[in-house]
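The material for today's practical consists of a large collection of protein records. An example says more than a description, so a record of this kind follows:
***
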Amino acid sequence: MLTRRGLMATATATAVFTTLHDIKAATPTGVVVMGKRIDDMTSLDPHEAFESSGTEVIVSTYQRLMGPAPDGSTAVAGDLAEKWEIGADGKTYTFQLKKDAKFSSGNPVTAEDVAFSLQRLITIGKSGSVIITQFGLNKDNAATAIKAVDTHTLVITLPEQFAPTFLLYCLGTGVVSIVEKAAALANQKDGDLGNTWLKLNTAGSGPLVLRSWRASDSVTLEINPHHNGPKPAWRRLVVRHLGDPASQLLAIQQGDIDIARDLGPDQIRALGSNQDVSVVKSNRAAVMYITMNQNHPILSKVPVLQAIKWAIDYEALETNIVAGTYKIQQSFLPQDFPGEIPDRPFKRDVAKAKALLAEAGYPNGFEIKLDHYSSGLYPDIVQVIQANLAEVGIKATLLSGEPRAVITKSRERRHEMAILQWGADYFDPNTNAQAFCENIDNTDATTLKTLAWHSSWQDKEMSDLSRAAARELDAAKRIEMYAQLQRLHHERAPFAFMLQQIWITGTRKNISNFASGPISSRTFYRNIVKG
């Protein structure tokens, strides 16, 4: 039997429980908490890191010579560079640096720091160094080709001419970030130019500075008081590793995080009309496609390639399978990218696909093996494609595997058909044109194993046109060349482009002005506003 005192205690406990239950969690004032998958990070040395999550941290903690245009267009603009000139030889680039830029240490950014950083990228020679070495710069010529003329003047002399926009876009990529020379050398170990130290520390001039990184757990960034540009009103940003989209959904619904970066179709549906969370969509420069190995005697026939492209029900994939997370894209340059075209030449046409198969000598179709990723939306996507192919007489046997296994198999040219996804490495059309068009040596001995090489496809006209576009000095003419390349690609190439990924970001109602960029080098935390 409860006493009066017992009744009062019970009532008080119930009231406390109800009050705590009804109060929604909220992140601290002045702190932005982001949930995303960050277990791909292996280093925060900008001249080593080449993964998505690490690059995002780097472009917030470092600056580069070049950056995105303030108006959001695809034009090139200066970041540390105030202005630049191109010599009459088309190979000499002179950059004048902004005089107010400072590293997080408080020391000024000088041309010597820039020269050291570009030379260091080449010397360390990690995978991202190809962004610079593709211009003919290497360990032997870097010291003479990249020079600080005075405190604020840098000169880069290329061995041969390239399109100016090509170089300038690449100089805005995360891996070409500018490191404070004194800090790197003061912390070097066994001649590593500070690589071991910079894996876990930052020495940049970006708007944020690294305070901590715990692998597969969290990254903490704080304001760099010496940054020469606008600074966020908040003081700290924490990126928490939440690998499961469902976990991100729960965390943002409860207010434990302000931003959720990896939501999928199920999470979008679950949010519904939630008044506390907004869904922000932005194009990612990643395209999903079917690749068809030209070593296969049937797939080597152009009418067969065309038949497969006309057999796919692109609209069904977009509407029913990938709803809101991908959209139809049928060219190798993604939307919102320099040189992209709006063409959608293919749609599901069973009669046309069958006629093309008959023209190729296969009126009754054929059997083929189709490799695909076992994770994400791929099992559902491939079921639709298998059914589409069956309607025109092509019997596809599905081979499911982990992404790394499917990618490795295609790189070794052991696939027949495979569904893959490709993301741009830098914000210039050459990044995809070279990958999908160029194959100048189809032997195993080649050093340029592009995606075209992976599928044993050679088209001399397209290889030559792609290489010429990378060297075209007239910017408008260059864009026209990429449009021509994409339309020729529709006709000839053993690639059926289907979809482009859409970044889905969930933000609490007091968060604004943030969207994922088309590539990681163009995703900036500095823009986040927290009310």
Residues 87 and 420 are 41 Å apart (CA to CA).
